[in-house]
Amino acid sequence: MIPSPAHATKGTTMYCTIDDLKNALTEDILARLTDENGAEINTTRVNKAIEFASTLIDAHLEGSYPTPININSPLLTGIAVTLATFRLYLDSCGDDAPDSVSTAYTEALNLLVKLQNGELNLKTQRQNETLTNKTPCDKLFSRRFLGGL
User: Fold this and answer.
1) DSSP 121
2) Residue 17 in domain
3) What is the pLDDT along the chain (149 residues), one digit of tens a residue?
4) Is residue 14 within 8 Å of 5, Cβ to Cβ?
5) N- or C-end of the chain: fewer Cβ atoms within 10 A?
6) Which pLDDT does position 117 carry in this prediction?
7) How far apart are CA 15 and CA 78, in angstroms?
8) pTM attached to this predicted model
9) Domain span including residue 90
């Protein structure tokens, strides 16, 4: 079973699940992409594709967001499904992925760039916090000490 977005495997948060891929592709297509005979879904291959997608998301967003991102985001789930789908097609068909899958992959990468550059925004808890550079060792001075400033 593939972990939910809140769980980590090998230090990486997974932004989609096997069920997300089943909903996007159907079980039959997923089986054909991951099993030589197309008889059953090879969960090891699916896990690797999801890990690839999640790692790619983190690589794009780590400078703009604290990664891994531990929120339930339909946008990140959709991006992860698209990236994992593309990876499964590449692993199964080589460079013969359907145009629609390649186009969706390019659009997902463009969304990641927009998230990275701040053109799009994820609602994370950290963004709602007031950040300060104060530390417990900082000194506080009274108005009297500062001369009534």
Assistant:
1) -
2) yes
3) 333 333 344 456 899 999 999 999 999 999 999 999 989 999 999 999 999 999 999 999 998 888 899 888 999 999 999 999 999 999 998 878 889 999 999 999 999 999 999 899 887 544 444 445 556 556 666 667 666 65
4) yes
5) C
6) 92
7) 9
8) 0.75
9) 8-128
The dihedral through the CA atoms of 123, 128, 134, 137 has a sign that is negative
125: Cβ contacts below 8 Å, ≥ 6 apart: 71
* Structural domain contains residue 52: yes
* Residue closest to 81 by CA, chosen among 19, 1, 123: 19
Q: Which amino acid is residue 58, in one-letter code? A: D
The tokens 């593939």 sit on which residue?
2
Give the pair of three-digit tokens for residue 143: 């108005």
Q: Has residue 2 been placed in a domain?
A: no
Length of the chain: 149
Question: What's the CA dihedral at 126, 132, 137, 140 to 10 degrees?
Answer: -140
Q: How many domains does the chain have?
A: 1
Q: Which two tokens stand for residue 94?
A: 């080589």
